[in-house]
From TrEMBL:
InterPro entries, sorted: HATPase_C_sf (IPR036890), HATPase_dom (IPR003594), His_kinase_dom (IPR005467), HisK_dim/P_dom (IPR003661), HisK_dim/P_sf (IPR036097), RBD_domain_sf (IPR035979), Sig_transdc_His_kin-like_C (IPR004358)
Organism from which the protein derives: Psychrobacter glacincola
Entry keywords, A to Z: ATP-binding, Membrane, Nucleotide-binding, Phosphoprotein, Transmembrane, Transmembrane helix
Protein name: histidine kinase
GO molecular function: ATP binding
Catalysed reactions, semicolon-separated: ATP + protein L-histidine = ADP + protein N-phospho-L-histidine
Sequence ranges assigned to domain Histidine kinase in this UniProt record: 517-771
Keyword Ligase: no
TM regions (residue ranges): 12-33, 387-406
SUPFAM superfamilies: ATPase domain of HSP90 chaperone/DNA topoisomerase II/histidine kinase, Homodimeric domain of signal transducing histidine kinase, RNA-binding domain, RBD
EC nos: 2.7.13.3
Record-linked Pfam families: HATPase_c (PF02518)
């Protein structure tokens, strides 16, 4: 009760409402942060990543452009020199000696017969030795040492087909000396005199500094960053061992592609799919620009390279790159982002992440920045947490201040008012109205409470003022109530007497019908018993005649003197009488007449027994009864009224039930008589009586169904009402079915009726097998006898 009272306080409810409102505001703020702020912050974070990625691409492209410019200048220089060995060795040798340490080799490679007629191979090549010094190499000009000519190699052929002034970058491979990843920049060499293709200028660039550069950008961005080349081979990776694998042809290892990494690490598949799609877009763009040139270049690159060192896919990419780089430009302002990928569970970070893919001009290298989603949302989460904390800290003082204000200006005045009203209630209950004036409500500064106080005080004044008048009115009303109660009791007694008279009239009417039927049933057998007795009397005179002849014969035989003629005559008369009785079958007639008389006497006895069973005068109390016996007895008593009906019974074996057999007989006799009276004169009436047991509900069920005129729906609802009848005045009291319903109710059962006009009516009686209804429910006055 204390908890209920505490939560019933208006201040508590106001505080609860404020708390709920505040929680709703927090939820609204949280929803705005989740649906509006966080996506915007994520977008801003993504923009920062894109800007940083573009910066990294521009930085890498500056180094690539340096090598590209170097190759372009060397190509121009080599194309203008006279074709003399000393000039190329000195000029190109001096150039190579001045190269940055990242360039580990290079050379000028002439196409067959382009340097000197009849000379298939002529190249001027330099490479760093184990100490890092540039040294000339001559083995590429020796057929025995290099059975596969350089002009068929996988880096030479694409440069030959290039129609632009930029390097054609090879795929990434591992330098056999430094074991560092390396790429080759190949630039076509043209004769300055006739602009004919002479060969290729190449520079081998170490990629070790790319890893350091990627590490710098990775520290700046978070997550990890890596580079792939045109064929999606890894140029860099946070753990380089993951993207390397040794082969028979390359003991130091070869760089794998993004697709190969995805096959061993399925969580990398979204990034690999994006990189493959970007390459496919490159191919589609080239096909759309000039499909014939693209196809010719791809087939030429694939067919002219030696040892199948280039794949069909790589030849397609190189062909597309050569075709598209003719119109390629480089702008520091343009964004190089080509795709953003959601990675559900990155295999390096082991958490959800977002990958940003950037593409470099000319080389079509791709840089991928993989950033954890948590890092991207850390600002939004921090902002959300700080905002909610600030709101919570600000709400507590507001809540306390509100609680104090409500307690000071609302709760206390209302408590005083409630206590005063409670005291008034006690005085009113004790009828001490004059003392109410001492409990008037005090003045309040709150206008609403003051209005209630004023109205309550006015009510107190009226109660005190009218208290005396109310007392007199109460006394007068009590006297009137007592008088009315006495009148009502007298009327009730008269009504009960009238009801008893009506019930007895109904019973007498039923008894009159029953007695008339019984008289008719007794009169019939009594008539033929009388007739048979008269016939027996007539036949007995024949025996008197025989006895007379026999007495005469005996007297003649006992005479002192026997007259033989007289004796013989008497014997003949006696024998003749016997023969006549035999011929008339007097003895057989007497036996039949006596048998028929006994049958009539049995019928009369049966009616007497049925009448006794029906009345049950000696068994009017509740006892165990077989309802089938009540049905049979009632049918016998109603036989005279049912003679025009075809009566069919289907009586199941029933358990004994506790009931008043006399009352049950009265119910059944009423239903049977009503069924007989419901039959039209020109209609063949059928009465079907069934009995059964509902074991589940422990009920005995009796069904009385006729095929009479039926009862209209408007009448059906009133048939159990006392004094309601459809018969003519004087033919019935309207209590038969009312008594029937009441008897069944007193037995703890129920009676139901259903009827269809023109088809007949069915009454269903349900009586409990074991019932204490008669002990617990006294009979109502309407049915007292």
């Amino acid at each position: 009760m204390k908890v209920v009272a505490r939560f019933g306080s208006i201040s508590t409810r106001i505080l609860i409402i404020l708390t709920l409102a505040f929680l709703l505001i927090i939820l609204l703020v949280y929803w705005v942060i989740e649906t509006q702020a966080k996506p915007r912050i994520l977008e801003m974070t993504s923009e920062t990543v894109v800007e940083t990625g573009n910066e990294a691409i521009n930085s890498i492209m500056a180094n690539i452009n340096h090598v590209d410019g170097l190759a372009k200048a060397t190509s121009t220089m080599a194309g203008g020199l006279p074709k003399q060995d000393i000039l190329y060795k000195e000029t190109f040798g001096n150039l190579m000696q001045q190269m940055d340490q990242r360039i580990v080799g290079g050379g000028v490679w002439f196409d067959p017969n382009m340097y000197a007629e009849g000379r298939e191979r002529q190249s001027f090549v330099w490479a760093r030795d184990s100490s890092g010094d540039m040294q000339p190499l001559a083995r590429y000009n020796q057929v025995r040492q290099t059975p596969n000519p350089y002009y068929r190699d996988w880096w030479y052929i694409p440069a030959m087909y290039a129609r632009h002034d930029h390097c054609v970058w090879s795929r990434a491979y591992v330098d056999p000396v430094s074991n560092q990843p390396m790429m080759t920049c190949a630039k076509a060499l043209y004769d300055s005199r006739n602009q004919a293709f002479d060969g290729v200028v190449s520079f081998n660039l170490l990629l070790d500094n790319l890893g350091e550069a990627m590490k710098k950008w990775q520290d700046k961005l978070g997550g990890y960053v890596f580079l792939v080349d045109l064929d999606n081979r890894f140029l860099t990776f946070p753990d380089q061992s993951i993207v390397m694998h040794a082969t028979e042809g390359s003991r130091q290892g070869e760089v794998i592609t993004a697709r190969q990494l995805a096959e061993s690490n399925p969580s990398f598949a979204p990034i690999a799919d994006s990189l493959d799609n970007i390459n496919q877009m490159l191919i589609d763009e080239a096909v759309a620009k000039d499909e014939n040139r693209y196809t010719l270049a791809a087939r030429s690159i694939l067919s002219t390279t030696n040892l199948n060192k280039i794949s069909e896919q790589e030849s397609k990419l190189l062909s597309a790159l050569l075709l598209l780089n003719i119109d390629q430009t480089f702008n520091l302002v343009d964004s190089h982002l080509v795709d953003t990928i959601a990675v559900p569970n990155d295999f390096v970070l082991q958490q959800p992440a977002t990958a940003f893919v950037f593409r470099m001009p000319f080389t079509y290298w791709k840089m991928v920045i993989v950033k954890p989603d948590n890092d991207m949302m850390i600002v939004a989460n921090a902002l959300s947490n700080k905002l909610i904390q600030a709101m919570l800290l600000g709400f507590i003082p507001i809540l306390l201040l509100t609680a104090w204000v409500f307690r000071r200006y609302f709760t206390r005045p209302l408590k005083h008012m409630a206590q005063a009203v409670a005291d008034m209630g006690v005085l009113i209950e004790q009828k001490k109205y004059q003392q109410l004036s001492a409990h008037k409500l005090p003045h309040s500064n709150v206008s609403e409470i003051q209005i209630i106080s004023e109205q309550t005080n006015q009510l107190i004044d009226r109660v005190v003022e009218n208290e005396g008048a109310l007392a007199e009115i109460n006394v007068h009303l009590e006297k009137q109530v007592a008088a009315r109660t006495q009148d009502l009791q007298q009327a009730m007694d008269e009504l009960k007497a009238s009801q008893v008279h009506l019930v007895r009239s109904e019973k007498m009417a039923t008894l009159g019908q029953m007695v008339a039927g019984v008289a008719h049933e007794v009169n019939t057998p009594l008539g033929y018993v009388r007739s048979n007795i008269e016939l027996v009397g007539d036949n007995l005179t024949r025996f008197d005649e025989l006895i007379q002849h026999t007495d005469q014969l005996l007297q003649a035989l006992k005479a002192p003197t026997i007259n033989k003629e007289q004796v013989e005559q008497l014997i003949d008369q006696t024998l003749q009488c016997c023969e006549e009785m035999k011929e008339d079958k007097v003895s057989e007639d007497l036996a039949d007449l006596i048998k028929d008389g006994l049958y009539g006497v049995d019928q009369i006895a049966e009616l007497v027994v049925s009448l006794r069973d029906f009345s049950r005068i000696d068994e009017s109390k509740v006892k165990d009864v077989d309802i089938n016996d009540c049905i049979t007895t009632s049918l016998t008593m109603a036989r005279n009224n049912l003679r025009a009906l075809e009566v069919n019974t289907n009586l199941s074996e029933l358990p004994l039930i506790q009931c008043n057999p006399s009352q049950i007989n009265q119910v059944l006799l009423n239903l049977f008589n009503n069924a007989a009276q419901a039959m039209p004169i020109d209609h063949k009436g059928v009465l079907q009586i069934n009995s059964s047991v509902d074991k589940a509900q422990q009920l005995v069920i009796v069904s009385v169904k006729d095929n009479g005129a039926g009862i209209p729906e408007s009448t059906l609802a009133k048939i159990f009402e006392p004094f309601f009848t459809t018969k003519k005045a004087g033919d019935g009291t309207g209590l038969g079915l009312a008594i029937t319903a009441q008897i069944i109710e007193q037995h703890g059962g129920s009676i139901e009726v259903s009827s269809i006009v023109g088809e007949g009516t069915t009454f269903i009686i349900k009586l409990p097998i074991q019932s204490s209804a008669h002990e617990n429910k006294p009979s109502q006055a309407l049915f007292e006898s």
